[in-house]
């Protein structure tokens, strides 16, 4: 079988996580203390989740190369072992004695929405622009490479990864957290991106204006296309499904009927599956288009 790409390279958070459930639907207050239940489910930082699905679906036929750092500690050893077992090539995951392995904490509300905290002073802090440049000189991305910039390392490092990917003809994928949208706008990060993958909250934070819920994907696409006419935008909308938009129109991806038990990492899993399918040669769209309005805001 001839694949569209022969390697997937990405940077982002590699770390352990813990998930808590609250029965109280109120948003946690600034000075509030609350009893919550610790979940038995495993959780991880974002690059680990996204690349887990890519590796399980593609490796070893397509190389899967995370670029990042873990601490030289028990958590880092465990993560490295798990990532190797699912088929990732860890040639560019460095163990650091001077940083602990990153940790992420997720709080999930009764409606399955949740918030997430990730330590900024974990080993991901060692993933600098210089580290990205050194690793990519050896990896040598080209037009047969997917390059993915995932949250939980610095935006400067993720931008450098995308720039190098673009310079070498790679297919560049970006996701970001809502709190990072100001930096993304200011530095016009979408210019280096072929596929932007966000949820509704992240989309709204980038648009930076009030938009009706059913118009968010279209409005985001028009914002992104003003910077990069060839971009494709993927927006996940929870139980409403997802949308993919490009210059040819929009398409809604209907959700599978299911009872949500735990949505932690769902968006990351969705992105991982999308990248894997695209690398195998599947189209991002199925051919049932919704026309986009021609008006650019």
- Biggest sheet: strand arrangement: 6-5-1-9-10-11-12-13-14
Oligomer: single chain
Average predicted local confidence, pLDDT:
92
The proportion of strand residues reads 15-25%
Order of helices and strands: EEEEHEHEEEHEHEHEHHEEEH
If you compute it from the alpha carbons, what radius of gyration comes out, rounded to the nearest whole angstrom?
19 Å
The helix count comes to 8
In terms of per-residue confidence, which ranges show pLDDT below 50 for 5 or more consecutive residues?
none
Describe the largest sheet: 9 strands, mixed
Task: Please report the total strand number as a whole number.
Answer: 14
Structural class by helix and strand composition: alpha/beta
Overall body shape: globular
Fraction of residues in helix: 25-40%
How many angstroms does the end-to-end distance come to?
43 Å
Task: Write up what this structure looks like.
With 297 residues, this protein is an alpha/beta fold. The protein contains 8 helices and 14 strands. The chain has helices at 46-58, 74-85, 129-139, 155-167, 181-186, 200-207, 216-227, 266-279; strands at residues 7-11, 15-21, 37-38, 43-44, 63-71, 93-96, 102-108, 114-118, 145-149, 171-174, 195-199, 232-236, 242-246, 249-253. The strands form 2 sheets. Strands 6-5-1-9-10-11-12-13-14 form a 9-stranded mixed β-sheet, sandwiched between helices. Strands 2, 3, 4, 7 and 8 form a 5-stranded mixed β-sheet that branches. Strand 12 (232-236) and strand 13 (242-246) form a beta hairpin. The longest helix is centred in the last third of the chain and has 14 residues, at 266-279. The radius of gyration is 19 Å and the shape is globular. The mean pLDDT is 92.
